[in-house]
Amino acid sequence: MIAAAPHHQLQARDLACSRGPATLFRDVSLEVASGEWLAVRGANGSGKTTLLRCLAGLTRADRGSVTWDGAPAVGDCEAFRHELLYAGHLAGIKDDLSAEENVEGALRLRGRAPTPGATRAALAEVGLDKRRHLPARRLSAGQRRRIGLARLALDNGTCWILDEPLTALDDEGQALFARLLRSHVERGGLAIVATHHALALAPTREVVLGI
């Protein structure tokens, strides 16, 4: 008998954050559980990136709380950090490293150790098999984004917090991301994704900033 995947939940209550005299957002509450994904939408400058950073514990909110499975997710929350895969709006790629080295290096930083065969299979899945040894600087913007998709395919983190992961991806790349997201939630993962794009997999719920 296959054991059921653990059930997890990320909750935020009454979050508010400002930058200088400007209030980015306030009174933001949300929750997302295993098998669900939440879309964060809003105009440029509405605070989407800041909200995601607050949820990931990278930026301190002015007010409110974030919990992982009922416990505070900020500070020294090892259980949350172990399950969290955060990707900012920049690709986060080292130009001097190959696609293969970028994927393996990012995963090792998180205590993951993919086999060379698994890394190559993930890069092949995202269309980079023949370019896996090229320095990242020689790849297009969309191909660099696909390195991040290969990382998603290999990382077993339960909680994805992703900031505009579809930037620079063509239609095929966006469809690939949607398949990865579907697979993630179907096996019990959860995700919070800031995006302007509509995906084939509809979100469980949405948060819209700036309204």
**Poorly predicted sequence stretches spanning 5 or more consecutive residues:** none
The general outline is globular
- Give, in spatial order, the strands making up the sheet with the most strands: 6-7-8-3-9
Fraction of residues in H or I helices: 25-40%
The fold-level CATH name of the domain at 9-92 and 156-208 is: Rossmann fold
Count of DSSP helices? 6
Give the C-alpha Rg: 17 Å
What do we call the CATH homologous superfamily of the domain at 9-92 and 156-208? P-loop containing nucleotide triphosphate hydrolases
Q: Main beta sheet: strand number and arrangement?
A: 5 strands, parallel
Structure description:
It is built from six helices and nine strands. α4 (about 115-125) crosses α5 (about 140-155). The protein has helices at about 50-55, 80-85, 100-110, 115-125, 140-155, 170-185; strands spanning about 10-20, 20-35, 35-40, 65-70, 70, 85, 160-165, 190-195, 205-210. Helices cover about 30% and strands about 25% of the residues. With about 210 residues, it is an alpha/beta fold. It has a domain at about 10-90 and about 155-210: P-loop containing nucleotide triphosphate hydrolases (Rossmann fold). α6 links the parallel β7 (about 160-165) and β8 (about 190-195).
